[in-house]
Design a protein that fits this description.
By secondary structure, the protein is mainly β. Helices cover about 15% and strands about 40% of the residues. It is globular and about 35 Å long.
Length: about 70
């Protein structure tokens, strides 16, 4: 598992959020990239690719959409 944590900007509210993304392989599931956004209470508000990985292209799109720094 690789996990990178950065700051992202909500596309609509422009508020800052913690963003985590990377590559993972969960036994029994499809490997691939994941993208997660956490609110101030550490609740996940976006969770793409956690068990069924997303493509690198989808990851790049989400990072752009959330202005990941």
């Amino acid at each position: 598992m690789s996990r990178i944590v950065r700051v992202g900007i909500h596309p609509q509210t422009k508020e800052k959020y913690e963003v985590a993304y990377g590559w993972d392989l969960v036994p029994g599931f499809e490997p691939g990239y994941f993208f997660q956004v956490f609110d101030k209470d550490d609740d996940v508000i976006v969770n793409e690719g956690f068990l069924q990985g997303i493509s690198e292209e989808r990851l790049d799109l989400l990072k752009k959409e959330w202005s990941v720094m």
